[in-house]
Each structure stands twice: as C-alpha cells, then as structure tokens.
Amino acid sequence: MRSTSRQRVRLWFGPHQIADHIGDQPGAARYEAAMRRRFPGLDVTSEPVPVTADPADYSPADLHR
After folding, report:
1. What is the dihedral of CA 35, 38, 16, 50, to 10 degrees?
2. How many C-beta neighbours within 10 Å does residue 31 have?
3. Which residue ranges are recorded for the region named Disordered (predicted)?
4. Which 3 state secondary structure label does DSSP give 48?
5. CB burial of residue 48 (10 Å; 0-12, 13-18, 19+)
6. Sheet holding 43-50: strands in order across?
7. What is the percentage of the chain residues whose pLDDT exceeds 70?
8. CB half-sphere exposure, 29, CA atoms < 13 A
9. 23 has a pLDDT exceeding 80
10. What does DSSP assign to residue 51?
11. Residue 31, φ and ψ in degrees, nearest 5
12. Cα–Cα distance measured from residue 56 to residue 39, given in angstroms and rounded to the nearest whole number
C-alpha cells in the first residue's frame, strides 16, 4: 500500500490510545514534538497514512481531519 505525505501521530497511556492526530508531515512533526514535551513519560507513535481506494477503510475520526 502506498503512503501519502500525511502522518498519523498517536499518544498512548500504556495500551490505551488517548490522542490521535492526522496531518501533513510538517504539522504532524510539530504535534509529535509538542506531545513528547508535554507528556514525556508516555509513548508517542508516528506513521504514514496509507492511501486507500475506499474511504470506508478509514475510521470516522480519520475522515474529518
């Protein structure tokens, strides 16, 4: 699957996702840096958003971003 220039950044409290942000690479990098500063003890992940042919493959939370 191809990826776009969009990134998905998530903040985790153990196994629980507590924040989710999808944006262009520069904005996602700023968001990731801010989350790492604000919550130094929590895990922050960042991955490319895959390109899909069907918008239904995204969750409703992804579609509004």
Report:
1. 0
2. 19
3. 42-65
4. strand
5. middle
6. 16-24, 3-13, 43-50
7. 72
8. 4
9. yes
10. P
11. -65, -45
12. 32
